[in-house]
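Quick one: structure for this chain?
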Amino acid sequence: EGDLPAGEGYRGSNFSSDGGATWASSLTVNTDLIDPGCQGAICNVKKDGMPTNTLLVSNCKHSTSRSNLVISKSTDGGRTWSKACDVFTGRAAYSDIIQLTDGSVCVLYECGDGQIDGTANPNERISFLRIPKSMVNVKLGL
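Got it. Here's what it folds into:
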């Protein structure tokens, strides 16, 4: 697991114990997070306005193709991850994720299914998904 380079089918992580002033000397390969080497995003889940040890990440869950955008959850500060929610099962690329103050979770992402020229392109359009607070526990187990 530690010998796998980030960007070759998995996401890499680095950890800071002082709020980002310094970082661990080595990258950790997260084999729980399959990824083709594409930008993803992470957010810290808040309860009653306070940060928790639960994180959400949006990324393409495919080892070689920018496809299958998912939200995964970590309850141990990013050390392990579980797939929690499909966002877009076709071609997808860059994404951003945020939790709103009302408890809903939103993802802004690139995706495409070939509606424009018949060829599915992960950069065909920008889409937005809001998971209402009433569904967050069902979809993400929060």
